């Protein structure tokens, strides 16, 4: 009999403890973010979709070798006049990317030719679309930060215009001044 009432007491006590937490939160200001109309501020080191800047890239392939997921590939040809390598194409398979930032860290250019953006809403409707192919005839996803960088790049006729203020920054949000 004692055990029976003790059991009822402990159960009621546990229930009231839970309700106390519920009641406390009931009168607190709501913290729900009305996404997509409201968005949280991302941290400085947030790793979103990668952006690539073909006009800065020196085709050194360090990002290709550093990528643990083997999702970067490129082709470059040696230019006998300039004695440098000209980039023919550059691909990132976003279906394989694990957003580790290794490619950005090893990239030797200033600002970085490949870097993470704050873009986290990049969507694809077909598996093949995951492969982003930086060639002049391939449009990038519109409405995304990656796509906007590409669109501005194309609108400039691929002319180089580096902003000295962003040179040397490890994670420029938009290293090319448009
Ligand atoms: S973020 Fe990591 S996995 Fe993605 S392309 Fe760069 S090195 Fe590869
Ligand atoms: S590491 Fe940077 S400069 Fe070298 S190929 Fe990759 S993106 Fe281009």
Question: In words, what does this structure look like?
Answer:
There is one protein chain. With 178 residues, this protein is an alpha+beta fold. It has a domain at 50-155: Alpha-Beta Plaits. It has 4 helices and 5 strands; from the N terminus they run αβαββαββα. It has helices at residues 2-26, 62-66, 102-106, 145-155; strands spanning 50-52, 72-79, 84-93, 114-116, 131-134. The chain has a 3-stranded antiparallel sheet, with no helix packed on it. The chain is elongated and about 95 Å long. The termini are far apart. 19% of the residues are buried. Residues 156-178 have low confidence and may be disordered. It binds iron/sulfur cluster (2 copies). Residues 57-63, 106-107, 109, 113-114 line the site of one iron/sulfur cluster (SF4).
Helix count, DSSP H or I runs of 4 or more residues? 4
Mean pLDDT: 80
Report the span from N to C terminus.
Answer: 81 Å
Helix percent band: 25-40%
Q: Give the C-level CATH assignment of the domain at 50-155.
A: Alpha Beta
User: Strand order within the widest sheet?
Assistant: 2-3-5
> Uncertain regions: pLDDT < 50 for 5+ in a row?
156-178
Helix-strand sequence = HEHEEHEEH
Q: In angstroms, what is the radius of gyration? A: 25 Å
Q: The CATH topology of the domain at 50-155, please? A: Alpha-Beta Plaits
């Amino acid at each position: 009999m004692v055990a029976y009432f003790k059991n009822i007491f402990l159960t009621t006590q546990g229930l009231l403890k839970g309700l106390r937490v519920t009641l406390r939160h009931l009168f607190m200001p709501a913290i729900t973010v009305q996404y997509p109309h409201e968005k949280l501020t991302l941290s400085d080191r947030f790793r979103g979709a990668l952006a690539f800047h073909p006009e800065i890239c020196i085709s050194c392939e360090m990002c290709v070798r550093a990528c643990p997921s083997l999702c970067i590939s490129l082709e470059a040809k040696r230019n006998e006049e300039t004695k440098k390598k000209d980039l023919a194409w550059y691909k990132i398979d976003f279906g394989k990317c694990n957003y580790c930032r290794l490619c950005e860290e090893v990239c030797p250019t200033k600002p970085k030719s490949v870097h993470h953006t704050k873009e986290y809403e990049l969507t694809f409707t077909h598996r093949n679309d995951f492969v982003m192919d930086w060639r002049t005839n391939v449009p990038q996803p519109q409405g995304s930060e990656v796509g906007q960088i590409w669109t501005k790049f194309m609108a400039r006729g691929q002319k180089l215009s580096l902003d000295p203020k962003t040179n040397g920054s490890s994670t420029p949000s938009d290293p090319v001044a448009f």
